[in-house]
Amino acid sequence: MNIGATGTASAPQTEGIRRLPITIALIIGAFVSILNETLLNVAYTDLMKELSVTPSTIQWLSTVYMLVIGILVPITALLIQWFTTRQMFLSAMILFLIGTIVAGVAPSFAVLLTGRIIQAIGTGLLLPVMMNTILTIYPPEKRGAAMGTIGLVIMFGPAIGPTLSGLILDSLNWRWLFFLIIPLAVFSILFAAVYLRNVSEITRPKVDFLSILLSTIGFGGVVYGFSHAGEGKGWSDPVVYICLVAGFVSLGLFVWRQLVVKEPTLDVRVFKYPMFALASVLLMVMTMTLFSTLILLPMYLQGALLLAPFAAGVALLPGGVINGLMSPVAGRLFDKFGPRALVVPGLIIVIATLWFMKDLTSTTPVGTVIGLHIALLIGISLVMMPGQTTGLNQLPRQMYPHGTAIMNTLQQVSGAIGTALFMSIYSSGQVRYLQASANPEDPAEMSNALVSGIHSAFTISMFVGVLALVLGFFLRRTEAPVEAPHHPVHPKAQPQPQQH
Fold first, then answer.
1. How far is CA 308 from its chain centroid?
2. What stretches pass through the bilayer (predicted)?
């Protein structure tokens, strides 16, 4: 493993530690930062008017957030081994607070974008620290419930973001979307300063700057390339394919370097553990489905069912809330029954829901759409948390920083890929319908074209779900290899993974 050039590793004892205050501190920080990801979505129209920018420019407020997290998360595997839990968490939340203040007082789009970048740096540092800490302080038989509680926050934050944003914008201007976050961020910092304890193992591995450069170009190029295509630029845009080619080539070189250096920045040998590899693929598929649905359904509600943006946000709120509440339930069921008993039924629910979604029309009752959205997110919640916990449970403790960083990175990358892929399928279906239409300028035909695009996207998504279901049958309950304490193992000599 990455035991550093500096000698003796520092390994805090976690026996007898008070887990609840640490978990609460992590949850507060996660909620504040993740809520912020979707809080601005409803405000884009107001922002374009006030800051005099175009739709393609305003999209950078979301794109840059995903881009920075995609670049930064792989590096956190290294940072977690250099800095303590408290240093990482408090630095992340302080950066997030600074970014929030900068964005709130921003006099121009450039300053607002700078604030979002600083916020994203904080979020990118926070997510892997949170997961790594949960894995460290909870034994495997209790991790399902703990990860389920974290999942509640991760799902609930983005779900209420657009609705909360709409409520705020009804009576206040867009700056209050940031000002109202400041007290929550301050509270998170103060609470963590009092209750958060150091639980990470400080090993100070050698810093490989070439790996960091390749990682930045690789993950940054892939995320930006797919995001750029998904913003309507199309796959033929030179920026898209130049970024994707540069990204994938750099990722190939990055992986090769991690396999040949003595102390890898991001140890890709975690994929030698079969359940981790399988769970990673499942999570990527579910993230692609989730991200694409979060974009396609609001477009359908507003474009085909003619709901106002705030009404569309309210219509999607029940699904997000129930999905969040399902996460702790799924966690406890996971601890009791194992992953396959949840993942397989969850995927069947996802596939069945997408089957009905592919037949939505411009006259489908809103209540039906709300019910389908709830069912879809319940299915996804039965897959994501159990899959993630199963994969990470199989890793030895010294691999936790690498496993959590890789899973978080893959989710960011697959989110960008899913958005671009399904938006592309949606756009193609829309264009095909209008080309065959006798009167493509007719508003009714425009609405029908939107529905046709939705049909295409959800049909493909359903077939992707079927492939995931096949993989789900191979998921097994796992345990980490048994290792002697404080005698880290070199990556090439790690014990073989055990399966149960």
1. 27
2. 20-44, 64-83, 90-111, 117-138, 145-168, 174-195, 207-226, 238-256, 276-297, 303-325, 337-357, 363-384, 405-429, 449-475
